[in-house]
Predict the structure.
Amino acid sequence: MPGKIKCYTPAIPSETVSIQEIIASLFPMKGKRILLGISGSIAAYKMPHFVRLLTKAGAQVRVVMTPAAKEFVSPLVLETLSKHEVLCALASDSQWANHVMLGRWADLFLIAPASCNTMAKSAAGLCDNLLLATLLSATCPVWLAPAMDEDMWHHPTTQRNMKTLEGFGYRVLDTEYGELASGLFGQGRMLEPEKLVQLLEDFFSAEQALKNYKALVTAGPTYENIDPVRFIGNHSSGKMGVAIAEALAEQGCQVELVLGPSNQSSSHPAIHITRVRSAEEMYQHSVQIFPNCQIAVMSAAVADYTPEQVAGEKIKKAGESLNIQLKKTKDILKSLGEIRTEQQVLIGFALETQDEENYARKKLLEKNADMIVMNSLRTEGAGFGTDTNQVVLFERSGARHETGLLSKKEIAALIVKRISELASQKINT
Ligand code: C5P
């Protein structure tokens, strides 16, 4: 029972800031090892400029290219700017290119431009060139900056490949709208080098924000068994929760993700996933993990009721109606709210269909949370299953933040930014 759980204050990450940390916050790219993979797309002509921007920002850069990329940009230029040999082939006359070490050397592997062909091959796990072999052996975060014509970008295969790559835990960056190689205007342009550097700087400075923190995230639906064949479930896809787990991990946080039955996953090295099915299992894991975390985000759509009895055998069709007696499940968020310490950041979700703001504010108090993320099923493009969401954040302080309709990844990044701020306020008070 919630009242019987002991909650120890988890160690708060150190407040003392070292000289190295100050330098890292001022020059986030300094000393960072960026492995740049260039594939065959016209946008490859921008990469010498990109390499120059990176080295000026203090990064170390190594370049691998696909054979097709050499048609678009000269390896000699990239070699001169990166001050390192540019690798293209799995083996040369004298040497075998050690793709495993390259993947391990890097703090981040960015494939830019990522052509349609390289994305398709990556999604299928092919490795018939050095760039792809390096990708398969990379242990660092992987990003792709796609570049292609609009029709190729919108093709269902490309969109499916993109989802597959995201499922591997890779970050697929957006494309821009504008003039394309074909002369047409549309979506599919690679982000400009300056924008790529900005995203990398954000990533490496953000990485510091939750370094040494641990977070518990619940996500997905729960299934409550009726008999060996049927269950009570809901439409939650788990996308929002997994996006939050990844956004936390990208900021250096170690994440324990307790995930209900969902086809979502993550291969981010900082995320440990425990798969559960029922509300009770989710509760048991959550209360066990929570005392060691400084942050908890309850984004799961947990069943509020579960069958009182689970039939041992399949219930046979008989009369005109069937009554199933249900009992209340344990409210995980509320239970954590009862045992939390003031140093812990506790976040809940509210999915409403009416009187949204009142319910969200009530929930904030009832569940003793620091913030409630409210989304409404009345907002088109928000809620279950979609790739987009629109939320309002209600905080204990009374603060209220509204977002527009954004991708779930972008929403997750905004929520995590606010979590980082709340966490740092707690350290400083
Ligand atoms: O009360 P309601 O279900 O609307 O609250 C939603 C919030 O509470 C979400 O953060 C959800 O993850 C959490 N919750 C929970 N355990 C339950 C029910 C809801 O953690 N049994």
User: Anything to note?
Assistant: The chain has a mean pLDDT of 90. Residues 218, 279, 298-300, 302, 304, 329, 331-333, 348-350, 363 surround cytidine-5'-monophosphate (CB under 6 Å). The two ends are 31 Å apart (CA to CA).
